Amino acid sequence: MDSEAPAPLVPGVRIRLLRRSDAAGLSKAYLRNRQHLAAWEPERDEAFFTPRHQLDIIRAKLAQHSVGQEVPWVLVNRDDPAYIVGAVTLTGIVRGPFLNANLGYWVDSSLNRRGIGAAAVRFATDNARTELGLHRVQAATLLHNEPSRKILKRAGFREIGVAPQYLKIAGRWQDHLLHQLLLHG
């Protein structure tokens, strides 16, 4: 996918690769969604919400992308491509006999329950299959994150088990339900 041209995702939303110029837009998006995302993400200090810190994160993500270990996309408003409304990322891409990536995503709270998360997950897994040639994509959800579990199930992911104290989310180590999607039967 051309990183300069956003592709249609769902009506009103497009998807494209992350750019260095997205720092201010990500800062605004995270500030808008601070409360919404707090229960699902690590604790964030005040610096995280600044354009400068977002630029540091973007640089790190793009460095990982340049060596084939990550693919970071942003979801943007169709009419204003600088207005970020979410993200989907394949991280920890491993080649060799594993051919695996981890999936993460979030959608602006004002756009929940419109199929955007599901479309973003399908986009990322299709890319993992066709562009990256991966065999498997893994995702993890908090046990009580029913909306995310439903999105993954609709996208064909299967629950494969619970990982105790898997990630430190909202300030404490929490169990996660692991999911996988096998891309090549």
Description:
Helix content is 30%, strand content 37%. The protein is α+β, with helices and mostly antiparallel strands and 185 residues long. The chain has a domain at 7-135: Gcn5-related N-acetyltransferase (GNAT) (Aminopeptidase). It has an 8-stranded mixed beta sheet with strand order 1-2-3-4-5-6-8-7, sandwiched between helices. Strand 7 (158-169) and strand 8 (172-182) form a beta hairpin. Helix 1 packs across helix 3. The longest helix is centred in the N-terminal third of the chain and has 16 residues, at 51-66. 31% of the residues are buried. The mean pLDDT is 94.
List keywords for this structure.
185 residues; Acyl_CoA_acyltransferase; transferase; 5 helices; Acetyltransferase; GNAT_dom; Aminopeptidase; globular; single chain; 30% helix; alpha+beta; 8-stranded mixed β-sheet
Question: Summary?
Answer:
The protein is of the alpha+beta class and 185 residues long. It has helices at 23-32, 34-38, 51-66, 116-130, 146-154; strands spanning 7-10, 13-17, 71-77, 80-94, 100-107, 136-142, 158-169, 172-182.
The tally of helices reads: 5
Please provide the count of β strands.
Answer: 8
For the termini, the CA-CA separation is 25 Å
Low-confidence stretches: none
Give the helices and strands as they follow along the chain: EEHHHEEEHEHEE
Mean pLDDT: 94
Apparent shape: globular
**Strands of the largest sheet, in order across it?**
1-2-3-4-5-6-8-7
Q: Please report the first level of CATH classification, the CATH class of one domain.
A: Alpha Beta
In which range does the helix fraction lie? 25-40%
Rg from Cα? 16 Å
Structural class: alpha+beta
CATH topology of one domain: Aminopeptidase
CATH architecture of one domain: 3-Layer(aba) Sandwich
InterPro entries: Acyl_CoA_acyltransferase, GNAT_dom, N-acetyltransferase
Protein name: Acetyltransferase
Pfam families: Acetyltransf_3
GO molecular function, one term: protein-N-terminal-alanine acetyltransferase activity
